[in-house]
């Protein structure tokens, strides 16, 4: 039991870390494409860790499975929405950020 | 305890901030986005207040569907900003009398909040006492459909009136379709069956846990909007009679049951034995009817050619 508790807390903290990283990326990254990258990658990994951590703390198996079912749905939705926004931005001719050469 | 309090204080501040941003920003698109953010924060507030029923409705209707409608209006009008109006709003705020009146009103509200009289009847206990004869085991559904059924009846009528108002004002014409990437229809194809499943789960769950007709209808309406955005479902036309029929049917069913029960001596006073069945019947009818009503807010258009444009323009 202690091990499960420990693993759950570790997963929750990891999830929080990835959310923090994703938010910093959203605020700091230079253009729409890279910002989409942090949102659809870091935040979704954070969500996965968070849900796994909560599922380990859940009272019943059904509740744990319900929590885990949120993840694939969000993954599909954010992949499609991220692609749709990037696709539209590309159509509108928004250029991708390039590192300036020194 | 203190962490929860700090979180709630932060939430309250964010709610006020997003409300101010919604009203004060000069850009229309920003205002709409901030309104959606405001709705999501309000959802969090309702769930912190342990009111999951209202949180569900706020997320689906307040933030989701209303946000979609506002975004749609935004693309229809294409007003880049409202700087002139914004100036006027701020100027009005700067005017001393308005500010004074606002402050007085806020002070009056705050003081009256602190000296609210205790309710004469202990409502939660009254509801709990009568729950056994209501036909459902979830107190919110018992209040909405049984103890205060006429409130819900009037709410349904209000939605119908809103649609009538839209029809009376006139519908926007169908816009040319945006070029679409292939992924969105794929998402719609996989998500819509799940949304239909979730809607009927919400309807069924309403009897014993948070859920019910309004939330289920909002999910169904969102599915219809998603299908339309993916160009798998064409716009609805006001000449399609089935829409009027289905939208009216929910209220008619409700009123019909109410009229049939009038002989029993009260408006919507269900006989305890049949209450569960009658509530399920009303809620099922309302789910379908309200879903079409809500979806019609978004989907009803006059066709650009002025006649039936109903052939599916599927985008394979």
Question: Can you tell me about this structure?
Answer:
- The complex is a heterodimer of chains A (102) and B (316).
- Chain A is an all-alpha fold.
- Chain A has one domain.
- Chain A has helices spanning 2-28, 32-57, 61-91.
- Chain A is elongated and about 55 Å long.
- The relative contact order of chain A is 0.15.
- The model of chain A has no long low-confidence stretch (mean pLDDT 90).
- Chain B is mostly helical.
- Chain B contains twelve helices and no strands.
- In chain B, helix 3 packs parallel to helix 10 (213-229).
- Helices cover 71% and strands 0% of the residues of chain B.
- The longest helix of chain B is centred in the N-terminal third of the chain and has 26 residues, at 52-77.
- Chain B has helices at residues 2-24, 28-48, 52-77, 83-94, 96-114, 123-130, 139-147, 149-169, 183-205, 213-229, 241-261, 275-299.
- Classes of the chains: A mainly alpha (102), B mainly alpha (316).
- Chain A binds chain B through residues 73, 76-77, 79-80, 83-84, 87, 91, and chain B through 179, 181, 183-184, 186-187, 190-191, 194.
- Chain A: Keywords: Membrane, Transmembrane, Transmembrane helix.
- Chain A: The chain crosses the membrane at residues 6-27, 68-86.
- Chain A: This is Monovalent cation/H(+) antiporter subunit G.
- Chain A: InterPro entries: PhaG_MnhG_YufB.
